[in-house]
Amino acid sequence: MNNEKLKQKRFTFTMSLLAILILILFIISLNMGVVRIAPLDVFKTLFGMGSPRDELVLVDFRLPRMLLALVIGAALAVSGAILQGVSKNDLADPGILGINTGAGFAVILFIYFFQGSMNNVSTFGILLMPLFALMGAVTAAFLIYALAWKKGIDPVRLILVGIGVNSGFGAVIIIFQLKMNPQDFMQAAVWLSGDIWGANWKFVSIISPLILLLLPFAFYKSHVLNLLNLGDQVAIGLGIRVERERRFLLLVAVALAGFGVAAGGGIAFLGLVAPHIAKRLMGPKHQMFLPVTALLGSLLLLVADTLGKNILAPTEIPVGIVVAILSAPYFIYLLMKAK
Amino acid sequence: MSENGFQHGHNTNKTILNTSISGAIILIVGMLSLIVSVGLSIAYGAADIKISTVWDAFSEFDANVASHQIIREIRMPRAIGASLVGAFLAVSGAVMQGLTRNPLASPSIMGVTDGAAFALVVTLAFYPAASLVGLSFSSFIGAGLGVILVFMIGSFSKGGLTPVKLALAGVAVGSMLSAISSAIALHTQVAKNMSFWYAGGLTSTNWLSIKILLIAGGIGLLLAMYISKSITILSLGEEVSKGLGQNTFLVKVLGIIVVLLLTGAAVSVAGAVGFIGLVIPHITRFIIGSDYRWIIPISAVLGALLLVLADIAARIVNAPFETPVGAITAVIGVPFFLYLARGERRGL
């Protein structure tokens, strides 16, 4: 019992620490960038007393982008955690499995056929984009699941099939990408490797409610995830309808990834790294480790976005590229350690 | 693959003879089909050219005839380039699969192509005036970087280089290198030049690129043939190889040099054309068995044939626009990869 209390304490401590870190970073990030704004002016502006220029930069450009970074980070991290739990494979990630590429494919198709250019996506288009991303993600997930199915799902086969599906979508995307004009080509390429591009309030108001609705739902299913971890036999014995719950959780993970991609492009590895760190901090119990994963995901993506904006300024390095450079080595380390 | 090896471990003289006969037949048929396809590839294009004109361009070349010029300066190098690149990628994949005894080993999966593309971007970014020879050289170095990284991850990891680890290590190294290249490309604004390396294409092949291909790849092919017997033995297992008194380390080093030469040359000319190195060796082993003295030349011919045909398809599918040839090979390669991934005999 004492042990349980200790864990609870540790959970509260970690969560508050992460929240404080996010808050600090949020404020630092607000006053960094091509236009530097002093912390005092940041506060003034946020309370509606800043200069018009500061207001434009902060409220119209930086704030929506950072808010998006927070929700996308949480979505992808939790999506990865669920995928790892469901597939019982520590190396699962929506990016590696090809779910991101599937969503990206749908979005590229949508832009190619209905919008003409990456730069002037209409308001109606913004409304439809998450829907397309979701459909693409679900299609990819269905393909992977169906192709990996062979009297059940073997974790290794799932990953290999995912890699295959990933490169298949990648090849088709290239065909459409090459038909765009050179500027759009590059923009699409950047976006596919992860870039928070539609950073405006319209986007924030559409994407964040979707993600913020799904997250608590995932937390609510923690119990099921714990039981699935014990193995199918045990879970069935404890009265869980394994296959049904698994598909259902998979759908939640895929939807989270899809919405994340709609707003942030194909950010890979975040869904892998955040859950791993969280597991190290909190242990395998999903009630504690999922919320920590979500906050860690937000924090990491905000760090990556801030770094990307400032490290090679005035060039902005898209957030997905920063995430890949930072976390691919960690992934390789995990790979080398795995049996 | 290794199972195949054991089946053929107790070869009788009769089966050896059979292998030689069927190998020779496949080689001859393959070569003939290759010549026909190269002819078709030369004849087919934006300007309609008859097969008879193709023949004339060789037998009685006339510098004043436009179609003869097109054939000599544009279409011939392209068709020959396609066959060389296809052959090199296929042999490179065959050698990798033999050395690692890993059915998924192939240039595009092992981070080789991403490594080469990375080096090219770095070169273009910091030394924009680089010549074709300079670019080829840098793509060799990049290809080497990719292979060495993936191999190192494999050999330092617990439990060795299993197929799934190899694939994941390739993905990780690939996405890291391509992320860094994108960052550099964005910063230095060479982004537009990059599109080509990721899509793969043979449009800009000229006689100079053929020369580079022939020199680097030719050495690679000869070396591959030279070590083919040792690879056959190595593909039976490390212990077998050592037990038979083979210097396993030397064979591996030579094998890696072969892979570097062949893939580096291919990627520097055609960009990232995937899956040929994965698909062709499997098909070849399926036809001819596990003797690398036959697998290597037949892979070369079949790889050449596949890429020449894929290049023709790339021009037909959406004429008058060209579809990236890498996309065509992926259409063939992805289902094959999935088939392998689902396979029972993975030895994971």
From TrEMBL, chain A:
- Chief place where the protein resides: membrane
Q: Which UniProt keywords apply?
A: Cell membrane, Membrane, Transmembrane, Transmembrane helix, Transport
Query: Per the UniProt record, which residue ranges are transmembrane?
Result: 61-83, 95-114, 126-146, 158-178, 198-220, 248-274, 286-304, 316-336
What GO cellular-component annotations does this UniProt entry give? Answer: plasma membrane
**Protein localization:** Cell membrane
**Listed InterPro entries:** ABC_BtuC-like, ABC_transptr_permease_BtuC
One biological process term from GO is: siderophore-iron import into cell
Please indicate if the UniProt record lists Transport as a keyword. yes
Q: Which GO terms describe its molecular function?
A: transmembrane transporter activity
What topology does it adopt in the membrane? Multi-pass membrane protein
SUPFAM superfamilies per UniProt: ABC transporter involved in vitamin B12 uptake, BtuC
Short name of one Pfam family: FecCD
Q: The organism sits in which domain of life?
A: Bacteria
Q: Which PANTHER family match?
A: FERRIC ENTEROBACTIN TRANSPORT SYSTEM PERMEASE PROTEIN, IRON(3+)-HYDROXAMATE IMPORT SYSTEM PERMEASE PROTEIN FHUG
Q: Which family does it belong to?
A: Belongs to the binding-protein-dependent transport system permease family. FecCD subfamily.
Spell out the protein name for this chain.
Iron-uptake system permease protein FeuC
**What organism does the UniProt record list as the source?**
Pseudoneobacillus rhizosphaerae
UniProtKB/TrEMBL annotation, chain B:
**Chief site of localization:** membrane
- Superkingdom to which the source organism belongs: Bacteria
Q: What does the entry give for GO biological process?
A: siderophore-iron import into cell
Q: Which residues cross the membrane?
A: 20-44, 79-99, 105-127, 134-154, 166-186, 207-227, 253-280, 292-317, 323-341
Enumerate the UniProt keywords alphabetically: Cell membrane, Membrane, Transmembrane, Transmembrane helix, Transport
Q: Which GO terms describe its molecular function?
A: transmembrane transporter activity
How does it sit in the bilayer? Multi-pass membrane protein
Record-stated family: Belongs to the binding-protein-dependent transport system permease family. FecCD subfamily.
Q: What is this protein called?
A: Iron-uptake system permease protein FeuB
Q: Which organism is it from?
A: Pseudoneobacillus rhizosphaerae
User: Gene behind this chain?
Assistant: feuB
